Amino acid sequence: MNLKLRVWRQKDASKAGKIEEYEAKNINPHMSFLEMLDVVNEGLAQNGVEPIAFDSDCREGICGMCSLVINGIPHGPDRGTATCQLHMRKFKDGDTITIEPWRAKAFPVVKDLVTDRSAFDRIIQAGGFVSVNTGCAPEANAIPIGKHLADPAMDAAACIGCGACVAACKNASAMLFVAAKVSHLALLPQGQVEKAARVQKMVAAMDREQFGNCTNQFECEAACPKEISVSFISKMNQEYLKAFKGDIL
Amino acid sequence: MELNGKIPPGPLAEKWDKHRFNLKLINPANKRKHEIIVVGTGLAGAAAAASLAELGYGVHSFCFQDSPRRAHSIAAQGGINAAKNYQNDGDSVERLFYDTIKGGDFRAREANVYRLAQISTSIIDQCVAQGVPFAREYGGSLANRSFGGSQVSRTFYARGQTGQQLLLGAYQALSRQIGIGKVKMYPRTEMLDLVLVDGHAKGIVVRDLVTGKISSYAADAVVLATGGYSNAYYLSTNAVGCNVTAIHRAYKKGAYFANPCYTQIHPTCIPVSGDYQSKLTLMSESLRNDGRIWVPLKKGDKRAPADIPESERDYYLERKYPSYGNLAPRDIASRAAKEVCDEGRGVGELGLGVYLDFADAIKRVGAKVIDERYDNLFAMYERITGEDPFRSPMRIYPALHYTMGGLWVDYNLMSNIPGLYVIGEANFSDHGANRLGASALMQGLADGYFILPYTIGDYLAVSGKVKVKADHAEFKKSEEDVSRRTQLFLSIKGKRTADSFHKELGLLLWENCGMARTDEGLKRALAKIPVIRDEFWKNLNVPGEGQEMNKSLERAGRVADFLEFAELLCLDALERKESCGGHFRQEFQTSEGEAKRDDANFCHVAAWEFKGVGKEPVRHQEPLVFENVHLGERNYK
Amino acid sequence: MSNFLKSSVGRKSVMAVTGLLLFGFVIIHMIGNLQLFLGQDALNDYAKHLVEMPLLLWPARVVLLAILVTHIFVSMSLAKENRVARPVRYTQGATIQASYASRTMVMSGIIIFLFIVYHLLHFTFGKIQPQFYDQLDAEGRKDVYGMIVYGFQNIYVSGAYVTAMAVLCFHLSHGLQSLFQSLGLRSNALAPLLKKMAVGLSLFIFIGNTSIPLSILLGFVRMPGVGR
């Protein structure tokens, strides 16, 4: 199949970027989207054009590094799928595909389609953990955890930190990312002790990074490659309000 | 020269305890005065950086990805072993030790493996306390499943994302230390050289992958946790960024490289579909719990799997290895798949595949249970291949997955260079010639959480007092070397991209140093590698500049190292004139086609000393002494 | 407290609570107005009672105004941050599942605000149709009934009210379910119910409120003694 690509090119964070057009020829429908870009890049390099910079690593949908907005949708049209697992069979011969980076003030463009997502790391650093030093853990089976808690905790913990939720949100809000970690730890007995402080610190860190605010439109959930539910945002709001109640009482 | 592994004396079960007592300690106030560099943020690296910082050391942590959470440990699917014996099925430290050492075809150190089995239980405790959401039974206790190479259920798992959850646990512990300033994190920063001062590892030279700036970092000790080198083969289950650069540079600075030929080929990967392919995707070995592996009895049988009656199917693993069946260890299962495909009974378009069939399991427990057990794996398979594994069997084929070889380390995980520690997949220590499923996560976390934090103090207590700054002449020299090399890549301006050389090298290695190796093939590869390397340095094309983010330049550096390292890999395979575990030499097999070890001549670790590019390295030996297990033929029948 | 009010989550909960209170007012206001259907006497009597309780009426007005102002100001601060959060827009945007109502809350909010100003000028301050404002009924009470009936007989005035109610109910159809999410009360199990409830209540408000101008326009409600 042959495609027309419209790709965002930007030298670095300080320069303005623009859309450039490229042809992708003889694309095999079994290729992944990133393999298609590899082929295009190989062609560009041979013609003396600098290849399109994009992030990717594991290429099996778990590391969260790949981050392309394809025709306006983070990770492209296939629901519950990261860019690296999106395959060209989802497109038609002759399609025009627009490829842009994540767009958010908190995720500045580094180059072309590569963005700096260290804001997510700083949110986790603010409180997204259980404070347990190596060596002071009790016997693993000492605290039974029912499936009714373990399963939703795992659902929340499945977040790969790619940032598609921010990219998809009309307000570039990071609520789904933060909520996934807050909920994962708040659901488990191990996370109870720091529950209130954790949600307060993580929300404060999120706000410091200048993400937008949630308007409950649920675009995040629809773009999430792990299909993390917005019910965790509700859970986080609840935890936050409880923590506030705890503060004033 | 004989290498000294510094194995503590005394009975196997007491070695680690006694050794810990004998290690020198540093008082908490003095720990603050020591700085440690940790390169890599996978299970081993993140766990080590976090644990060292908790102890009070100042830690500098480096990774080439944009966040420490992306390290490739995240992709491990199946699980982590631990001798908890929660299933009451006869597991014990002793049994985990024995399974691991036997699984490794008796080519690992007894003492290291025993320690690993001992520590395994603490790892589970630690991870649960961090909030790792392991699978649970309805009563709330931890669930287990069984895995290849073992007859007990001792594998803990978090759906098909165990590596992810364990790594996030370690990442969160690391993040906590970054947040309080005990760890300084350097993401998108690639280590390009190791710096020695007076023979001790004292720092590294790195390239900032965003600005292209080359700079030095000094410390009292350097820990490499940079993973394995499967990507030498181009196509592997590793992330596309995984590379040999850090350990290869250390090797070039004098660290011995041990057993590079011990590579693991994983039996259950999605088969190659075309030459554009950038990586191979693993389907967790845990699938072999419920899936049955088969090929048609007849050669070239192109019927759809559903049209082939039971009587015309060959469940070859169940036939050859009745007691382990589909759960035979990885090397054996991989080779068996290659054999049936070589016989022309392979399935799929290219004939390079075997069926992994869930029809019986679905009939037994229902599609819903299977879906719950492996949910994301089935979806992943469908996404990649466009076929629904609930309707037709999966097609799988072996692929490069893990490398047991790595930098040589002693019992303390220190290489032969004082102050250079190597942990996780980057070292050679615990898996012998073949790693059992769900043991990589165990080893990475054991090294990072529970071994290195103790043993590094023993070195720092004595040698950590000599302080070196990053403006030392050795650092300047290294920086210049690195800059020169970077400039060289950019100045060649040839016709071929680094990727095309990498593909060529990968195919050469896969064909000649893959699942079945021969004297002739290895010699052919050894003759061809320098030719590719020469062309690389003459005809490489790296577009762009050095003072910016340049993915082609990063790639070129990694491929250049693979091109040097591949020679060592083949040389080690050539010199190890026996078959063991993942290293299968056609010339050395039993009458039944199984690996035939030569314990009289090769019951040792081969550790290679660098002597210059294109020059033959020197092969040192560390004899393996087995006092507790009998070196039997590995029998899974 | 100041941290709470500075935080995104805290301000969202303020939006939810003030929104809920304003919705409560909308319901009460509607029930009051629907007394129009009980006739001139009933409505004017109700209006007279309200005016005769200044200790209740004025605090209620002040509180209501404060709630409204809070709702508006907090939304403005949130919306401003939302714009800042994405300085470069997508050249090709797309929406996956966000409802139209959810994407236009600011716009519908502004329209509702303008409508409130108009509505106050119309019926509270008598600036739009002053000729109907100061009339008294047969018993000497202020003729609220007449003011409304005469006012809505103008098709443009009625049209404005019907349009404004459509926008209000559009706003509510998102707001009424969204507030549960913001207060941490929504779950996946509850979600379909909340959605039905929000749409149902919005329709209820729409039908209830627009029934007044429509009935007048269609002649179902008229001044006593005036025939068809």
Task: Briefly characterize the structure.
Chain A has helices at residues 33-46, 118-127, 147-157, 164-168, 175-187, 195-208, 219-223, 231-248; strands at residues 3-9, 18-24, 69-70, 73-74, 96-100, 109-111, 114-115.
How would you describe this protein?
The complex is a heterotrimer of chains A (249), B (637) and C (228). With 249 residues, chain A is an alpha+beta fold. Chain A has two domains: 3-111, Beta-grasp domain (Ubiquitin-like (UB roll)); 118-248, Orthogonal Bundle (Fumarate Reductase Iron-sulfur Protein, Chain B, domain 2), CATH 1.10.1060. Chain A is 36% helix and 11% strand. Chain A has a five-stranded mixed sheet with strand order 2-1-5-3-4. A two-stranded antiparallel ribbon of chain A has the order 6-7. In chain A, strand 6 (109-111) and strand 7 form a beta hairpin. The N and C termini of chain A lie far apart (65 Å). Chain B has a five-stranded parallel sheet with strand order 6-2-1-10-18. A five-stranded antiparallel sheet of chain B has the order 12-16-15-13-14. The relative contact order of chain B is 0.16. The model of chain C has no long low-confidence stretch (mean pLDDT 95). Chain C is elongated and about 60 Å long. Chains in contact: A-B, A-C. Chains A and B meet through helix 1, helix 2 and helix 3 of A and helix 3, helix 5, helix 6, helix 11 and helix 12 of B.
Shape of chain A: elongated
CATH architecture of the largest domain in chain A: Orthogonal Bundle
Distance between the termini of chain B: 39 Å
> What gap, in angstroms, lies between the N and C termini of chain A?
65 Å
- CATH class of the domain at 265-400 in chain B, named Alpha Beta
Net shape of chain B: globular
CATH topology of the domain at 265-400 in chain B: Flavocytochrome C3, Chain A, domain 1
What's the number of extended β-strand segments of chain A? 7
Tell me about the largest β-sheet of chain B: 5 strands, parallel
Task: Supply the number of structural domains of chain A.
Answer: 2
Q: With helices defined by DSSP (H or I, 4 residues minimum), what is the helix count of chain A?
A: 8
Q: What structural class results from the helix and strand content of chain B?
A: alpha+beta
Number of helices of chain B: 17
The averaged pLDDT of chain B comes out at: 95
Beta-strand residue fraction of chain B? 15-25%
Radius of gyration of chain A: 20 Å
CATH-assigned fold name of the largest domain in chain A: Fumarate Reductase Iron-sulfur Protein, Chain B, domain 2
